[in-house]
Amino acid sequence: MQAQAELHYKVRWRPRGGHPGHHPSTHQGGGLEFRHLVPLANAPDPRRFDVRASLRDPFGQIQVRVYQQTSAIPVFALVDLSASMRVGGARSMLARACEFVACLGYSAARSGDAFGLVACADEGSAPLYNPPSANPAAAWAAAQALGAAAPPGRDARGLLAATHLLGARRALVFLLSDFQLPLALVEQLLAALAHHDVVPVLLEDGAATARLPDWGLARVRDSESGQQRLILLRPGYKRRVREHARQRREALQALCLRQGRAPLVVDGPFEADHVTRYFLG
Amino acid sequence: MSFGLAQPLALLALPLALLPLVFHGQRVQSVAALASLPPDPWSTAADWMLRGVATLAALALVLGIAGLYRAEQVVERIGLGAQVVMLIDSSGSMDRPYVTGNRGTSRAAVWGTYRSKGQIARELLAEYAARRPRDMNALFMFSSHPIPVLPLTDKPAAIQAAIEAGTYERGLASTDLGAGLIQALEFFKDQPFSGSRIVLLVSDGSAVLTIPVQDHIRNLLEKYRVTLYWLYMRDQHSPGLQPGRNGEIAPEQQVHAFFSSMGLPYRAYPAEDPTALKRAIAEVDRLQNLPIRYSDVLPRVDLSGGCYLVALIALALTLGARVVEVEL
Q1: Where are the domains of chain B?
Q2: Partner-chain residue, chosen from B28, B36, B44, that has the shortest CB–CB distance to A219
Q3: Rg, Å, chain A Cα set
Q4: pLDDT: is B233 or A36 the higher one?
Q5: Which residues partner with A218 through β-bridges?
Q6: Poorest-confidence range of A237-251, B23-37, B188-202, B217-231?
Q7: Is A215 an interface residue toward B (CB < 8 Å)?
Q8: Who's near A202: CB < 8 A, 6+ residues apart?
């Protein structure tokens, strides 16, 4: 069995939780980051006694250093389960999302963060929900559950309703989708998740349009609406498809940037280092 | 122009032609989102064109099975030339050897060993008809009773076939030249006078015309304004049309005398004269080439072959569309 790759992430905000972890937080406690000095009476921990500050104090009070601890944050994977994610079988976006979730869950457990999974498609359907847990086995189970998730949905509107499952604490949310959604829905979704730190993970196959044959006929069916159309492929049309995809991606990028973060584009096979570069690079 | 069907019941299959509008029969491939493929009018046009072609194929097949035909129709045509009624004597005397070309072939006249007058006559007529393809010709045969073979037509193939048809068997015993002539002349009855009318009599003239018959013939020739040509087939032992020195009278001489004495347009062409046919043709040429209005019957045309051809092309197109399908 291949060793599970590990990815690293960091957040630019300070979590509030007291549960120790890897992320600099606002919680004072046993960390390395100096915060301020307080009289011993306010922080009765003589181990942090600061000699120079105490001597300098005009009132002769004994000063104690206070540090900020690093805390754990909840990490969520919010996965779009709409039918478009399943197109392509073993190479589908959902398969890639499973790899991502497995790696993310493992890495979160290694960082001491609790990892939870919310996957959803239609509005009416019950979302797949694994509550946050620091157990690495739970992350593994989550990826397995995602692979065996319920039949594909027609759209991704259920994600909107499922956002409350993420809880009230600010969390790092990876929104995994191919973003073949109406841009209005993406905007609504990002607005509903504004409380959290959302990393839109754009799963795409950029080579797909390049792979299109120059000439030919193809009858295609939309995986979600079931609508069918005949496509008369020709070089001019291919150019238009590519241009269309580029424009859509730009619009999506702009939208995500407005909501805080640029999308993390996973083009082709999933690589953990790619995610790490997104956060640290 | 009207159309008909040989097997109208096959039209029950006609609703099948609507199938391509519902089913396309192509391999369907799932794509993540149709929105990623911008709308394309050419693709839409190709889609409907393919469905149309498939519908056309089904339609053409059903019509082909139903046996579509264009019904026979009567058209009015305008021909040029003369209206010629060929009146061929097919009596037994025409089976006798012709005056030239039979010397030494046989002592006794055995059928098949010599060239008969009838055969020569038909060769001459065929040549005549071939040289004047724009004339309208009718064909009558007579021996004891006149037999209409072909009504007035300008179709060379039909005329040649009608002339050819008489060459195979031998004629009947009796000859009634009068009845034949009268019948041929009556053919012009109630027909608009729209061109020169000619009766081309091809006979050896070995017949007797009684006085009433002679009167009748003269009246009809005058009434219908018909020119009479006689392509005279001379017998091996006949003295010819001109009376001999010793005053004997052959039947053809009597007939010739009667025709000549009518005071109506008449000409005799002894066929043994190699220029006779040429002169006859020149004579007809000299007569005015008036336009002839007549109605012609076009035969029914079977269109199912064309239907199958259309279906074949349409099916080939749909098959081609299937072949150029690609995987995305």
Answers
A1: 3-28+38-72+299-324, 77-296
A2: B28
A3: 23
A4: A36
A5: A231
A6: B188-202
A7: yes
A8: A177, A178, A179, A249, A252, A263, A264, A265, A266
**Residue of B40, B49, B53 to mutate for A, most A C-beta atoms under 10 A:** B40
Question: In the predicted model, what is the mean pLDDT of chain A?
Answer: 88
DSSP type of residue A58:
T
B109-138 pLDDT tens trace: 666 667 777 777 888 888 888 877 777 888
Lowest mean pLDDT among A181-185, B192-196, B252-256, B262-266: B192-196
Q: Is A221 on the interface with B (CB under 8 A)?
A: yes
Return the pLDDT at B228: 87
Q: In the CATH hierarchy, which fold is given to the domain comprising B77-296?
A: Rossmann fold (3.40.50)
Contact predicate A87/A120, CB 8 Å? no
CA–CA min distance A233, chain B (Å): 8
* d(C-alpha B10, C-alpha B19), whole Å: 17
Residue of A208, A215, A229 lying closest to B34 (CB–CB): A229
The beta-carbon neighbor of B28 closest among A85, A228, A244 is A228
The three state secondary structure string of chain B is CCEEECCHHHHHHHHHHHHHHHCCCCCEEEECCHHHCCCCHHHHHHHHHHHHHHHHHHHHHHHHHHCEEECCEEEEEEEECCEEEEEEECEHHHHCEECCCCCCCCCCCCCCCCCEHHHHHHHHHHHHHHHCCCCEEEEEEECCCEEEEEEEECCHHHHHHHHHHCCCCCCECCCCHHHHHHHHHHCCCCCCCCCCEEEEEEECCCCCCCHHHHHHHHHHHHHCCEEEEEEECCECCCCCCCCCCCCCCCHHHHHHHHHHHCCCCEEEEECCCCCHHHHHHHHHHHCCCCEEEEEEEECCEECHHHHHHHHHHHHHHHHHHHHCECCC
Predicted pLDDT at B94: 77
> In A123-176, which residue ranges form alpha helices assigned H by DSSP?
136-147, 158-162
Q: In which residue are the tokens 């034949």 written?
A: B180
CA distance B308 to chain A (A): 26
Instruction: At B248, list the tokens.
Output: 């004997």
Instruction: List, for residues B229-239, the tens digit of each pLDDT value.
Output: 888 887 767 77
Residues from chain B that touch A223, judged by Cβ atoms under 8 A, are: 30-33
Name the pLDDT band for B244 (thresholds 50, 70, 90). Answer: low
DSSP 3-state of A116: strand
pLDDT confidence band for B246 (50 / 70 / 90):
low
DSSP helix/strand/coil, A257:
helix
